[in-house]
Design brief:
Layout (H helix, E strand, L loop, with lengths): L4 H4 L4 H4 L10 H25 L2 H7 L3 H26 L3 H4 L2 H29 L9
Helix pairs in contact: 3-5, 5-7
Length: 136
């Protein structure tokens, strides 16, 4: 059997599984945690959409906070599936993708990690109108 192409490029297989493993949890537990968080995010999102009026539901997609929440829901869904495939076979789907898709996944991961903090900062900076510090 031929070695994986990544090892020919000098990349170890353990380096490629960094998105599907954790130092704290075993892969199967991590997959279950990610899938539970995804389920929670989707149930919450669909519950909010079902209880809103149709006009406010359509307008909610114009808010960056709502779009970030959708992004987190889909991230946890796909990362849970990738981790589950890694826990079952030792190789995740991501490792089988072509290199450009792996690079796009790394870009998507960086946005998932940074956007919630950025959205929170921008939201409170724009929303808060009073003085930041009490005047003495």
């Amino acid at each position: 059997m031929a070695p994986p192409p990544a090892t020919l490029l000098g990349i170890s297989p353990t380096h490629l599984s960094r998105y599907t493993t954790s130092w704290l949890l075993p892969p199967l537990s991590l997959a279950c945690l990610r899938l539970v968080l995804s389920l929670y995010a989707f149930v919450t999102t669909f519950t909010v959409l079902a209880t809103d009026t149709p006009l406010s539901a359509r307008q909610s997609f114009s808010y960056f906070t709502v779009l970030t929440y959708w992004g987190l829901a889909f991230y946890f869904l796909f990362s849970g599936l990738h981790t589950l495939s890694y826990a079952r076979s030792g190789v995740s789907w991501l490792q089988r993708w072509p290199r450009p898709f792996q690079a796009l996944h790394a870009l998507f991961y960086s946005t998932v990690v940074t956007f919630p903090f950025l959205v929170t900062i921008v939201f409170w900076v724009v929303l808060y109108k009073g003085p930041w510090f009490p005047k003495t």
